[in-house]
Amino acid sequence: MNITDQQIDYISINLTVNGVTSTELKEDIIDHICSAIEADNSQDFETLYKKVIAEFGGYGKMKQIQKEAKYTIRAKKMLKTRKASFVITFSMLALLLIGTLFKIMHWPLANIFCVVSIGALILISLPLFIYQSHLKTTLQIQSK
């Protein structure tokens, strides 16, 4: 069976009405539904559409997939933030240690190293830590 543009629009509207809001996920689901309908030789679109939706687990399953996809994206974002926070904090602490060593040895640039490292810890690492805590909290809320 060939699918028309009106039928594709019908599937898209149906998915939107039933809670699938992610455009990427919706396009993937539409593609899978169309492929499954086109693979069947029957000519009744409505019956095939209902059969395919039931095979996919219904609209509730699609909403669950969307929720899991959002959760995974947020978890990946949190992991990237953790890595960036670790690298920046470690680098600034190393710079602070070098600045302290320079200060003890009375070498030039000691004050600059110390001020830059403390400033970066306050202006970059602290907001990253707060953002990371926020992401962690929202992930815990979503997983419940």
Descriptive overview:
The radius of gyration is 26 Å and the shape is rod-shaped. With 144 residues, it is an all-alpha fold. It has five helices and no strands. The two termini are 42 Å apart. Helices cover 85% and strands 0% of the residues. The protein has two domains: 5-56; 70-143. The longest helix is centred in the middle third of the chain and has 48 residues, at 58-105.
Structure, briefly:
By secondary structure, this protein is mostly helical.
Descriptive terms for the model:
0% strand; rod-shaped; 144 residues; single chain; mainly alpha; 5 helices
Fraction in helix: over 70%
Q: Can you tell me the overall shape?
A: rod-shaped
Kindly provide the radius of gyration, computed on alpha-carbon positions and rounded to a whole number of angstroms: 26 Å
Largest sheet: none
Number of strands: 0
Structural class: mainly alpha
Report how far the terminal alpha carbons are from each other.
42 Å
Average pLDDT over all residues: 89
Oligomer state equals single chain
Content of β-strand: under 5%
pLDDT < 50 stretches: none
Number of helices: 5
- Domains, number: 2
Q: Helix and strand string, N-terminal first?
A: HHHHH
